[in-house]
């Protein structure tokens, strides 16, 4: 029976064959222990000299790291194994012998590993992080599909930007200027006017010259947009979504979380509703703790971490000053200096994972914003049309996938949370 490591539990005490790579090995005079992987998981293969032909045992001892092979053997239950199973190997067929594999079990520097990212992905730690990433994606689709959303794909090449062109990658679109998208939000607003509740999931690009552990040049965003929904209702949806994803990872990624030594007790408490603090109160909170920050300034990583640590939960910071937020955010109904928006700050120092707001739905007010921000009415005429033809209250938000993966997996730097990271000084491999 040919199967995979993830499916071996169905074949206890049966003979199976798997295509695998050798991740590592150790051997004594009488037993060889093979650490095998096949992309679906990891398992130990045990080759006992007294139970196989001499040729097979010698073959096992001579195997080199990352050699590909077919192994045949009997699946055994073993409570000491992370997956609960191991393989008693009966025969080995080498497919391709790997020689001088560069990433050995010894310690390697980050730059070396990043230069070999195409191979580093094979490691147990990277495998676990990518599996968690996949579960976040899977459960995201499940959540929005179950809640009446449809997926709409906004363009990646745009003639204008959602938040100004300062941090955008410029390119030529034949004889026109174009930019790589930093957000699909404006297009998702148009989609929401057609389909009520929509979400997108795709790559976005920020030409920020930042080297922090929270920043990537290319990253993925989940961006829902909802017609007939106000800011408060959007916050409820956001906390429900994040709670759903956390529970899905806890339920479906037990082996991966264990492989990463993730403290799951910190994740088990993540359940809606989440605490909220106004921007005003957050400034006072930070001043009381002797942070040098003034009203009207945006929060940096130390500020967000201090606030999140106080709550030990994801926390919404609501109603930021109008002057530090995007032109499309709806003003607060009783104040003209703040807008109806919120950032969701993850605990444990992982920073902002969601930014969202209620959008301006009044044509005149949006036109005023165009003028304040020196935006071209010609470039944004289609966006104004959404306020001219059946405008409704609407809200939306964007969740950064890589920061969320980093938080749930307990990974320090976002460069490990995307298969091939694009960083300030890295476009290879």
UniProtKB/TrEMBL annotation:
InterPro entries in alphabetical order: Aa-tRNA-synt_II, aa-tRNA-synth_II, aa-tRNA-synth_II/BPL/LPL, Asn-tRNA-ligase, Asp/Asn-tRNA-synth_IIb, NA-bd_OB-fold, NA-bd_OB_tRNA
Subcellular location: Cytoplasm
Enzyme Commission number(s): 6.1.1.22
Key word Aminoacyl-tRNA synthetase present: yes
One MF term in the entry's GO annotations: transferase activity
One cellular component (GO) term of this entry: cytoplasm
One Pfam family, short name: tRNA_anti-codon
Ranges for domain Aminoacyl-transfer RNA synthetases class-II family profile: 132-429
Taxonomic path: Bacteria, Bacillati, Bacillota, Bacilli, Bacillales
PANTHER family found in the cross-reference section: ASPARAGINE--TRNA LIGASE, MITOCHONDRIAL-RELATED, ASPARTYL/LYSYL-TRNA SYNTHETASE
Family (UniProt): Belongs to the class-II aminoacyl-tRNA synthetase family.
GO terms of biological process kind: asparaginyl-tRNA aminoacylation
This protein's name: Asparagine--tRNA ligase
């Amino acid at each position: 029976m040919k199967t995979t490591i993830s499916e071996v539990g169905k074949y206890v005490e049966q003979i199976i064959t798997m295509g695998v790579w050798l991740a590592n090995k150790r051997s004594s005079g009488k037993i060889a222990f093979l650490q095998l992987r096949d992309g679906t998981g990891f398992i130990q293969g045990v080759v006992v000299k007294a139970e196989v032909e001499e040729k097979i045992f010698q073959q096992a001892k001579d195997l080199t790291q990352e050699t590909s092979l077919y192994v045949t053997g009997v699946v055994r239950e073993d409570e000491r194994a992370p997956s609960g199973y191991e393989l008693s190997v009966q025969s080995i067929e080498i497919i391709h012998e790997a020689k001088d594999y560069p990433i050995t079990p010894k310690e390697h520097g980050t730059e070396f590993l990043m230069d070999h990212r195409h191979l580093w992905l094979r490691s147990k730690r990277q495998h676990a992080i990518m599996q968690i990433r996949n579960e976040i994606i899977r459960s995201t689709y499940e959540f929005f599909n179950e809640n009446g959303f449809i997926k709409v794909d906004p363009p990646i090449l745009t003639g204008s930007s959602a938040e100004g062109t300062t941090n955008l990658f410029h390119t030529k679109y034949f004889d026109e200027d174009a930019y790589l998208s930093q957000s699909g939000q404006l297009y998702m607003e148009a989609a929401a006017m057609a389909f009520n509740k929509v979400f997108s999931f795709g790559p976005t690009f920020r030409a920020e010259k930042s080297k922090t552990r929270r920043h990537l040049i290319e990253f993925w965003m989940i961006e829902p947009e909802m017609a007939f929904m106000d800011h408060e209702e959007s916050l409820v949806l956001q906390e429900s979504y994040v709670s759903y994803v956390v529970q899905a990872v806890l339920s479906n990624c037990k082996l991966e979380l264990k492989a990463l030594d993730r403290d799951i007790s910190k994740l088990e408490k993540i359940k809606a509703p989440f605490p909220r603090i106004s921007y005003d109160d957050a400034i006072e909170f930070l001043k009381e703790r002797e942070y040098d920050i003034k009203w009207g300034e945006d929060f940096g990583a130390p500020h967000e971490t201090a606030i999140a640590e106080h709550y030990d939960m994801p926390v919404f910071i609501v109603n930021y000053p109008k002057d530090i937020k995007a032109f499309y955010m709806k003003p607060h109904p009783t104040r003209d200096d703040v807008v109806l928006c919120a950032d969701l700050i993850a605990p444990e120092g992982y920073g902002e994972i969601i930014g969202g707001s209620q959008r301006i739905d009044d044509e005149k007010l949006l036109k005023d914003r165009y003028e304040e921000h020196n935006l071209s009415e010609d470039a944004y005429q289609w966006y104004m049309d959404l306020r001219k033809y059946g405008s409704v209250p609407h809200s939306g938000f964007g969740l950064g996938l890589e920061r969320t993966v980093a938080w749930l997996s307990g990974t320090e730097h976002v460069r490990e949370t995307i298969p091939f990271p694009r960083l300030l000084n890295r476009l290879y491999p």
